[in-house]
Design the sequence.
């Protein structure tokens, strides 16, 4: 059972923070406070908290006017954004569409038109469809599909060794599916797993068309894809790898490996214009990567401020949002290659596991922009933040 409650306590409302500059090409420069006048400081308010009882939220996604949540108790819920953002004056039962998805906790969600793709701890990817006026969930497929499995299992060359004395067909993930990413045209979905593979699936018939074995040396935690089809994967092996489809062989080949993090990479996100890649890791750093004139990805800044691992990232407009094991969310803005921490959101009582964000559709003034940040934590809460930034 989940419910929506007000967040009107003074410790969560209208806090203001000074700006902090982070430009750290040598990775050792201290954070330098910048003195600014009080009227120009950003402020925020936690406008709602959804209590999810004993299940933590592992994935958040916005599509249309709905917030999609995936949780550790195997549930997908769909919440109307208008309801969440407007009905926060009293504690009440909040309406949501819900489906129990299967055997494994949900690790990632991707929305494509009327379909929902969910990645699970039981090594499966499931596909769902919302149908009818009552918007009921229908289970469409489980990947790999039975047909895909049957065709591959009969041919020995389709079997690969996954552990000592154990084999599986190459279309199977054999460990937790940790991340999903959808191509911009919606024709292909990419999955990564703790089994160290990257797999590519057609969304038309849900067939696995390619598997990159041993894509990393350790579990793969995150994946993003650009509009030109470049695929970025981040792993516990401390590396970020960039993959591109070969025109000759029609399979994905490794084109670059980024190795600056000192601990496992947990989160990746591209800027809105896709010119910048942000990576968050267990080394407590967010690294900012841009393409050099030669086309190589180089670090232009390192954002430091979190006291524990970075677990999730989100981009909205020119803002970067980071969630951490330290139970806080930080909002960053870049001016050139210099990045500022604009505000620190405090309110979760556990690590912040996932984030998503949007521009607020009502501007409070010509000089003050507002945004909504949605955060899910291991404290089993979903929080909705409204942020005002000059």
Sequence:
């Amino acid at each position: 059972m989940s419910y929506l409650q007000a967040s009107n306590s003074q410790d969560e409302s209208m806090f203001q923070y000074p700006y902090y500059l982070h430009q750290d090409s040598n990775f050792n420069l201290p954070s330098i406070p910048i003195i600014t006048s009080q009227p120009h400081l950003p402020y925020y308010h936690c406008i709602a908290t959804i209590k999810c009882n004993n299940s933590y939220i592992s994935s958040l996604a916005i599509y249309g006017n709905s917030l999609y949540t995936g949780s550790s108790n195997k549930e997908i819920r769909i919440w109307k954004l208008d309801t969440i953002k407007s009905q926060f004056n009293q504690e009440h039962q909040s309406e949501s569409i819900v489906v129990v998805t299967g055997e494994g906790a949900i690790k990632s969600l991707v929305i494509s038109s009327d379909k929902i793709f969910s990645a699970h701890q039981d090594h499966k990817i499931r596909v769902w469809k919302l149908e009818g006026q009552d918007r009921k969930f229908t289970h469409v497929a489980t990947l790999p599909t039975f047909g895909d499995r049957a065709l591959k299992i009969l041919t020995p060359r389709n079997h690969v060794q996954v552990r000592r004395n154990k084999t599986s067909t190459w279309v199977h993930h054999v460990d937790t599916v940790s991340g999903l990413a959808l191509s911009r045209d919606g024709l292909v979905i990419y999955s990564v797993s703790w089994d160290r593979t990257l797999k590519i699936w057609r969304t038309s018939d849900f067939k696995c068309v390619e598997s990159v074995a041993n894509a990393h040396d350790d579990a793969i935690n995150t994946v993003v894809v650009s509009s030109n089809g470049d695929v970025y994967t981040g792993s516990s092996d401390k590396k970020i790898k960039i993959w591109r489809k070969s025109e000759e062989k029609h399979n994905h080949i490794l084109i670059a490996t980024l190795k600056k993090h000192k601990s496992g990479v947990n989160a990746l996100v591209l800027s809105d214009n896709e010119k910048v890649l942000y990576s968050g890791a267990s080394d407590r750093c967010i690294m900012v990567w841009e393409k050099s004139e030669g086309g190589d990805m180089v670090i232009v800044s390192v954002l430091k401020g979190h006291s524990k691992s970075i677990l999730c990232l989100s981009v909205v407009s020119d803002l970067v949002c980071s969630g951490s094991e330290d139970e806080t969310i930080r909002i960053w803005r870049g001016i050139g290659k210099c990045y500022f921490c604009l505000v620190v959101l405090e309110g979760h009582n556990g690590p912040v596991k996932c984030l998503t964000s949007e521009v607020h559709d009502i501007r409070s003034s010509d000089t003050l922009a507002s945004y909504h940040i949605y955060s899910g934590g291991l404290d089993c809460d979903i929080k909705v933040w409204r942020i005002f930034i000059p």
